[in-house]
Amino acid sequence: MLWRQVPLAFVLMIGAMIVHAQRLPDFSELVEESSPAVVKITTVAKSGRGITLNRPDMEQIPEIFRYFFDPRKIPEREQRSMGSGFILSHDGYVLTNNHVIDGADEITVRLLDRREFEATLVGTDKRSDLALLKIDAERLPHLDFADPEEIQVGEWVLAIGSPFGLDFSASVGIVSAIGRSIPTEENENYVPFIQTDVAINPGNSGGPLFNLKGEVVGINSQIYTRSGGSIGLSFAIPASVAIDVVEQLKSKGVVERGWLGVMIQEVDKDLARSFGLRKPQGALVARVEAGSPADKSGLKVGDIILSFDGKSIKQSGDLPHAVGMVTPGEKAIAEIIREGDRKRVPVMVGALGGGATVAGLSNSSKSVDSLLGVQVESLPDELKREWNLDTGVLVKAIDPNGAAAGAGLRVGDVITQIGFTAIQNVDDFGLVESQLEREALLPIRFIRQGRPVFRTITTPK
Q1: Closest by alpha carbon to 102, among 137, 76, 133, 143?
Q2: InterPro entries given for it (predicted)?
Q3: CA neighbours within 13 Å on the CB side: how many for 30?
Q4: What is the C-alpha separation between 143 and 399, in angstroms, rounded?
């Protein structure tokens, strides 16, 4: 009788909750099977070696006080740090982050069964933040990498590591994005990071990120935080990068990456329209380094690279990832858009090696009330040398209500291209400007503080 009085909606809700709970994965077996191959890494860096007071300084000290300043070595101080890692093979290869062991004099690897080993450094790769270690042991438990092509946004992932020194802690979440571009302090961008909401904290660095099969899909490397702890935004180095780095460190002790020799920028909606694209995509070439593989292959400023070596370039950050994965000396095909036409350019990939003062009179172009609302002049010699320029015109004045101001140009910028036409000098600028159509949306390239920039400019009615 009581059951009949329960609302049907409540019964359905309870049933849905039961079904949903049954679908949630149980990670206990994965943790039990994988933890023995996860390691805790502690390092010691010694400082203060051999620091001695100099005799000339002693001579300047009154004799009565010299006793207190006798030459002596300052005692060594030890700096300790910790992180995580995992065993790659039964014979003792261990992978971790480069920043975990960077500068270390001693590296200790501790296993789940409390065994400890002194590790030797096989090699490091700062650009990917990976380091390969070796411990003297056999028949060790080890982990396998997942197929790099199978990872998907939304799938469950699990991390095991030593956050805050709490050994072999597990945390779970989902993959929230793949192919994230995070430039380094050197403005390099060779790792397409996996973004997750797994709780990662200091000490997790270098530890594995698992899929539900117990395979390693990534190596936990970074967190985004304002508090110093996890806020649900963590980044892992994908298996595709790790596999390549490990193979090269094992065979050569160093990592070689492909190099193209271009500076690129993002293609926004307006730039896409001005280049004849239906939607923003690709990497816009803003500069080509002289003598680089890109230069030798015929790539030009203003080209939009849509794919490289068969990999789609959806945004500019995808290009360094694709180029870096190509073995130096191999040929790759770059699919580009040039002046509205689609082309295929073969490129022999190379190896990656590790405000101006305006003076004197100049030939000025039109007044600020010109079509583009900009006054330009010839490049001073000192600016050519400082920014390594051969062509272009210097912006001398701008109409704040004109087209140039609307495109974001400033006094001191150097205009090098309007539409698909290179601007060699003041005469070129005047000729190109006189031929522009009204209400036209065009790409414009300029140099600001030595760095190339593409924008769009719209001519007035």
Answers
A1: 133
A2: PDZ, PDZ_sf, Pept_S1C_Do, Peptidase_S1_PA, Peptidase_S1C
A3: 21
A4: 63
Last residue of a domain, one of 202, 233, 251: 251
- Domain identity same for 237 and 267: no
Same domain, 287 and 247: no
Same domain, 262 and 246: no
| 123 and 152 share one domain | no
Binding residue positions for substrate: 99, 129, 203-205
Residue 301 in any domain: the answer is yes
Q: How many CA atoms lie within 13 A of 201 on its CB side?
A: 17
**Cα dihedral 451/258/293/262 (nearest 10):** -20
426-435 average pLDDT score: 84
DSSP string, 93-129: EEEEEHHHHTT-SEEEEE-TTS-EEE-EEEEEETTTT
**Amino acid letter, residue 61:** I
Provide the residue range defining the domain that includes 275: 258-351
Report how far residue 374's alpha carbon sits from residue 459's, in angstroms, rounded to the nearest whole number: 12
d(CA 209, CA 242): 12
CA distance linking residue 378 with residue 454, whole number of Å: 21
Nearest Cα to Cα of residue 317 among 217, 447, 178, 453: 178
Question: Residue 101 carries which side chain, given as an amino acid letter?
Answer: I
Give the DSSP per-residue string, 357-373: PP-S---B-S-TTSTTS
What b-and-e string marks burial along 361-396, b requiring 16 or more CB atoms within 10 Å of the CB? ebeebbeeebebbbbbbbbbeebbeebeeeebbbbb
Residue 383: which H helix or E strand, with range?
A: helix 381-387
User: To 10 degrees, the CA torsion angle through 205, 208, 210, 215?
Assistant: 160
In a domain, 2, yes or no: no
Tell me which residue has tokens 């329960």.
6
Task: Give pLDDT tens digits for 37-96.
Answer: 999 999 998 764 444 444 445 555 555 555 555 555 445 667 888 999 999 999 999 999
Question: Is 242 contained in some domain?
Answer: yes
Any idea which residues carry the catalytic annotation?
Answer: 99, 129, 205
pTM summary value: 0.68
Same domain, 380 and 439: yes
User: Over pLDDT 90: what percentage of the chain?
Assistant: 44
Contact call for residues 172 and 156 (beta carbons, < 8 A): yes
d(CA 285, CA 305): 8
Q: Residue positions in the annotated binding site?
A: 99, 129, 203-205
Q: Is the pLDDT confidence value at 436 over 90?
A: no
Tokens of 249: 């460190």
